## 1
Amino acid sequence: MSDAVPTGMGSRPVRVDTVEALRATVHGAPREATWGLVPTMGALHDGHLSLVDRAVAECDHVVVSIFVNPLQFGPAEDFETYPRDLARDLELLAARGVDVCFTPAAAGFTPAGLRTTVRVAGLTEVLEGARRPGHFDGVATIVTKLLASSRPDRAYFGEKDYQQLLVVRRLVADLDLGVQIVACPLIREPDGLALSSRNVGLSEHDRRRALALSAALHAVAKAWDGDAGTARARLHGALAEAPGVDLDYAEVADPETLEPLSGTVRGPARALVAARVGGVRLIDNVALSAVGVDAGAGH
Ligand code: PAF
C-alpha cells in the first residue's frame, strides 16, 4: 500500500454523486494507489462495516457506494420501504476511514433510457433468481456500472448474499473486468440472526421467530455427514414447522453452481434458506464443510 491521499480529500469521506465526479476523484490519486470498492444499498450495519474495515485494511483508498438500486426490486417488492438513513451511514463511514462515498441519484445512474442489462445465465435461475425474476439482472447491471465507474483493484461482497457473490464473481470473470472479488464472512448477532438491513422491519416477536433460520442451519451443519437428501429434509422439516416462518426454500446445493445435491457428497456443500417472517423476507446460509461442522452458523 502507498500512503498517497488523492487531492482534495481533506475531510473524509468525500461525497460524490455523479460518475464524472467519482472518476475525477479516483483518477486524482497516484497511479500506484490501490482502490477498494464496497457496494451497498445503505442502512449500514456491522455486516457492511466488516466489509468496509477489511477494504480499509487492504487498500490505500476505499469507495463505498450507497445506492438503493431500483433495478433489483420487483414491482411487488419493498423498494419504497427499504430502510434508508444516509446521514447515519455517512457518520459511520467517516469514523471508519473511508475516502469516498458514492451516492448517485437514481435519475442519473439508472435513467429511464437505460437499454443495457447484464445477465449471468444459469446461476441466476435458481433459488433467489427463481423467486425474484429480474433481481439478479438488476444486481449484475448495477454492479457492472459501479465497477466500471470506480475501476477498483478489489471489490468486497458478503457471504450473506451468497448467490449474489457467485453471480458477481462469474460476471467479473466472463467480462474480464480485472477486479479481485473479495468474499467476506456473514456476520451474525450473538443469538445467531444473520445481519441484514431488513432486520429493522422485524418486531421483537418476529425477530425471535426468525432465529429458527439460523438455528436450523446450525443444526444441519452440526449433523452434516455428507448425506445431502437427509440434510435437506431436516432443514425443510425444521423450517416448515417453525411458528410464524413462511418458508420459501431450503436447499443443500453445490457451493459453486448452486445445483441441488443428492446422495452422498464428498466435497463441500452450501445450505441456503429463504423465508418470510412477519412480512419481512430473510435469507441465510451456511457452509457444509467436507469434514463436518463449519463454524459459520454462529451458535
Ligand atoms: O448487496 C447489496 O447491497 C446490493 O445487492 C448491491 C451489491 C449493492 C447491488 O445493488
## 2
Amino acid sequence: MTDLTRLSAAELANTLRSREASSVEVTRAHLDRIAAVDTTLHAFLRTSPEEALAAARRVDAARAQGEELPPLAGVPIAVKDNVVTRGLETTAASRILAGWIPPYDATVVSRLRAAGMPILGKTNLDEFAMGSSTEHSAYGPTRNPWDVGRIPGGSGGGSAAAVASFAAPLAIGSDTGGSIRQPAAVTGTVGVKPTYGGVSRYGLIALASSLDQIGPVARSVEDAAMLHEVLAGHDPHDSTSLPDPVAGFVSAARSGDVRGMRIGVVRELGGHGYQDGVRASFEQALEVLAGLGAELLEVSCPSFDYALAAYYLILPAEASSNLARFDGMRYGLRVEPDDGEVTAERVMAATRGAGFGAEVKRRIILGTHALSAGYYDAYYGSAQKVRTLIQRDFAAAFERADVLVSPTTPTTAFRFGEKLDDPLAMYLSDVATIPANLAGIPGMSLPSGVSGDGLPVGFQILAPARADTRLYEVGGVLERALKSAWGGSLLDVHLMGGASER
Ligand code: GLN
C-alpha cells in the first residue's frame, strides 16, 4: 500500500478527489508520522489531533455529498507558531506567551480552514522569529532531518523540518529576513516569500512590520504554488494588503518556460564567504537553466554589501516597538517582583526579564538605542537611506533581467552550538535573503543539489514586486530538469533513499 505521507500535496489532492483515500486516512497517516519522528526532531511545539481529524471528517462528509471542494480540501498542514490560531495555544516560541490561547484566527488560518485543510499543529521557531537555527526557541531546538546534529535553519526551522521529514505535506512560514527561504535551503525543501502585501499579515505576531511576510513551505514548486493561491489575496484587516487578483501561480509552476528569459546572477551574492559545495551546486543549476534556453547575465547590486547592517538597525527598531505590548498586563506571562512594591512598572520589568530570551533582549536594547533621540538620524535614518539604495539597485537590475538568482545561503546546515555565542556569525546566514525583504520583492528557495558534505543546497530566485508568478515559472522548470536528472526529488533520492512506490 502507498505510504500517504510520501505523496506531494498535489498527489494527495488527486488521491482524495478520486476517493482512493479519505482525508481522515491522510490526516491520521501524518499524525502517526509525527508520533514516529517528532520526539527526535521536535518540529512541533504542539499538535492538534482532535481538531485536525474533525476537520478531515467534515471534508470527507462534504465530498460524500458530492459537494464541489477547493483544490487542497482534505490535505493537512502545519502552521508556524507565530501565526495565531483560535482556541489553540500560540507562543511564538517565547516563554512570555506560554499558555496564551488566541481569541481569533489569523487571516491565513481562516483561509486554510475555508479551503478544508486540517491543521496538524504548531511548529517551532526561534523566539519571535529572531534567529537562523531555532536554537533561540524557549522550548528547545528543532533538529534537521538530514543530520540530527545540525540546525534546520531559522526562524522557521520547525515548518521546514516538518515538511522535510514527511510529517506534513505543507506548512506555513514567515519571512522577515529569510526565515522561510533559509530553512528551506538547509532542509532541501521549497520556500516562498511572497511580495510584501501579497499575503495578509493579520494575525501574524509581528517581528518587524515593514519586512514581515507569510508564505508557503512545501516539497515541490507546484505544491508551494497551490498553497500560495490559498493564502494570497486582499484582506481588509491588513492595511498593507495588495488588491491584486490571485491566479497563475499553479499554471506557471506546471508549464513555465525559460527560453529567452533573462536571468541575472547577482555578483554580490555568491562569491567570497560562500562554501565551495554551495557555489558548485549553484553553478550547475545555472548550466541547467542555460541549457534550457535561458539567457544568463551578471548584474551588480553594490548596495547589497550594506543590507545586513541596515537590516540589523531597522529590524530591532521595529521589533522593540512591536514587543512593547508584552507587558505582563495583556497577554500570557505575568511575574510580580519578589520584593518591594508591586507597581505597574516593576511588574513589567519582572515579566519581561523572565519572559524574554537573550536574543530578544539583545534586539530590544539595540532597537531602543537606534531609535533614541540622539541617535535616530545616525542609525535609523541612515539605515532607511540604505534601504532606498537597495531598492534602486533592484530596480536597475530588473531593467536588465527578468529574475535574479543566487545561492540562498552561504553554507549548508551548521552544527548546533556553532554560531550560538556569536550573533554576527548567525546573522550572516541571511546575507543573501535580506535584500528582498528590504525591497519588498518576492523570493523562492528550491533545492539545487547536495554539497560535498552531503547536505542540501538552496537556489534562490528573486522577481520584481507583484511578479511572483516568475518565481514559479523558473522554479518549476528548474525543478523538473533536476528531478529528471536525479530520478526523483532531492528528499526522495538523498534523504529517503529512493522514490516511494506508487
Ligand atoms: N534570521 C533573521 C533574523 O534573525 C530572519 C528572521 C526572520 O525572517 N524571521 O532576523
